[in-house]
Design a protein that fits this description.
Strands 1, 2, 3, 4, 5, 6, 7, 8, 9 and 10 form a ten-stranded mixed beta sheet that branches. The chain has a single domain, classed as Spore Coat Polysaccharide Biosynthesis Protein SpsA, Chain A (Alpha-Beta Complex). The chain has 280 residues and is an alpha/beta fold. β1, α1 and β2 form a beta-alpha-beta unit. 35% of the residues lie in helices and 19% in strands.
Length: 280
């Protein structure tokens, strides 16, 4: 029997999907794996799909061959270096459906590798309204998927695809980061270019130029990625009069996340330069 939700993973040799499946025997989600390496012999997931240059291209291949009628009410497109604790993916879907979210994502844990501080978990909230959802683990309602799937081939590098969702949803549908469900980004990188970026370079594809080509589609600027002034859902038990101030306080405390990220990046780059010199 088909479960009500779907997790789509673009997977390599070190994909976390095997752990996620093993740790969630009572999950409410089906899994579709799209390999970007030669597929190993496994039959853990309900669906497997090939093709596509990146995660979104892989999903488009699955979308072309989708069952009719589409059986899943929400779909999360998860990178293969994302990890959520047992039961949290199920909770992601339950909270999304209970609140009728259009497009959302789990929050990032404080001491994992992050790029955008507003998407880091705020312990005061169950969910916060933001102006941007990134491409690492977006959770689409079926309505959002149908309205935004046409953007999935706008960029081979994937840069700019998530920005397009912010533009297309602005003033129409709210976007949420779910602080009640958090995730780890398990691969920080070591300063070396990944296989994807090496392949893009060989093709003459510039991620920065692809991002700009997406931005050029929308004349009005989005501005910085930020939390909006209203629309947030606070955790039960927090005094309503104090909750907004506490939420803003934790947003300011995220400077700790930013400083840690800068230190780790400096150490990573230093190690890479040292290794490069040693190899010469």
């Amino acid at each position: 029997m088909t479960r009500p939700y779907l997790v789509f993973v673009r997977a390599g040799n070190k994909s976390t999907h095997q752990r996620l499946l093993a740790e969630n025997p009572d999950r409410n989600w089906d899994c579709c794996v799209s390999w970007y390496v030669p597929p190993p012999a496994e039959d853990l997931a309900e669906h497997y799909c090939d093709g596509g240059f990146n995660k979104f291209g892989g999903f488009l291949e699955f979308w072309k061959r989708r069952p009719n009628p589409w059986p899943w009410r929400y779909v999360a497109l998860v990178d293969d270096d994302v990890y959520l604790r047992p039961g949290d993916l199920s909770r992601l879907f339950e909270i999304s459906e209970r609140n009728g979210t259009y497009l959302s994502q789990p929050a990032l844990n404080w001491f994992t590798y992050t790029t955008i501080n507003v998407l880091v978990r705020n312990p005061v909230c169950l969910m916060r309204r933001v102006n941007f959802i990134e491409s690492m683990a977006p959770c689409f309602s079926i309505a959002a998927l149908e309205q935004l799937v046409h953007t999935f081939d706008w960029s081979r590098s994937t840069w700019g695809i998530d920005v397009s969702w912010a533009y297309l949803s602005r003033d129409k549908q709210p976007l949420y980061v779910l602080d009640a469900v958090s995730m780890d980004h398990t691969r920080m990188g070591d300063g070396r270019s990944t296989a994807l970026y090496r392949e893009l370079a060989a093709m003459g594809v510039s991620p920065a130029q692809e991002l700009q080509s997406v931005l050029d589609r929308f004349p009005k600027k989005l501005g910085r990625y930020r939390m909006l002034k209203s629309g947030h859902v606070y955790r039960p038990g927090i005094p309503p009069l104090l909750a907004p101030a506490l939420m803003r306080l934790f947003e300011k405390l995220k400077i700790v996340v930013r400083v840690r990220k800068q230190v780790l990046r400096s150490v990573r780059n230093w190690r890479y330069r040292l290794a490069t010199r040693s190899a010469q």
